[in-house]
Design goal:
- The chain is mainly alpha-helical.
- The chain has helices spanning 2-14, 18-24, 31-44, 52-59, 63-75, 91-113, 118-128, 134-148; strands at residues 79-81, 87-89.
- It has a two-stranded antiparallel ribbon.
- α3 crosses α4, α6 (91-113) packs across α7 (118-128) and α6 packs across α8.
- The chain is globular and about 60 Å long.
- The chain starts with a helix and ends in a 7-residue tail after the last helix.
């Protein structure tokens, strides 16, 4: 197939090791899922019960669309719904939500530090957080932490 041909071509052209080839596999993103889980986390930080309508309002989606997504997240063991319709994240869902939220906040901070206005930075971070590999995000996060500490200031 096309993907195998591209990988073979890159392997020949770049002379990749097996380890490098493995790392080259596309990072699998679940943008919609991550957005829902992050929304539940952010709403729950306000110490209130999170309902489907809250998510619909926050994300700008219809209630039926949110209900379908929540049903899938519940089936996958990422969200629990009590008898009153309140949503909570399972341990697995919370882990994904926290990771997504961390990417969002770090990327927003980096963009603001580069001079991007806060609104645009947040909007761009929301898109970027879903496509960065864990390796790339880790490097950005480490670089930014060192930059904040002044590690790159001229001496």
């Amino acid at each position: 197939n096309r993907e195998e041909a591209e990988t073979a071509t890159k392997k020949i052209y770049f002379q990749l090791s097996e380890e490098e080839e493995s790392a080259m596999k596309p990072y699998e993103s679940h943008e919609s899922e991550e957005n829902y889980l992050e929304a539940i986390l952010m709403l729950s930080l306000d110490h209130r019960k999170v309902r489907a309508i809250d998510i619909a309002n926050m994300l700008g989606f219809s209630k039926p669309s949110v209900s379908i997504a929540l049903k899938r997240l519940k089936e996958e063991g990422k969200v629990e719904v009590d008898e009153k319709g309140s949503l909570t994240l399972t341990e697995h869902g919370l882990s994904i939500a926290q990771s997504t939220y961390e990417k969002h906040t770090v990327l927003t901070d980096v963009l603001v530090a580069l001079g991007v206005n806060a609104y645009t930075a947040s909007q761009d971070a929301c898109r970027m957080e879903h496509v960065l590999s864990p390796e790339s995000f880790g490097k950005i996060k480490d670089f930014y932490a060192k930059w904040k500490e002044g590690a790159y200031n001229k001496k």
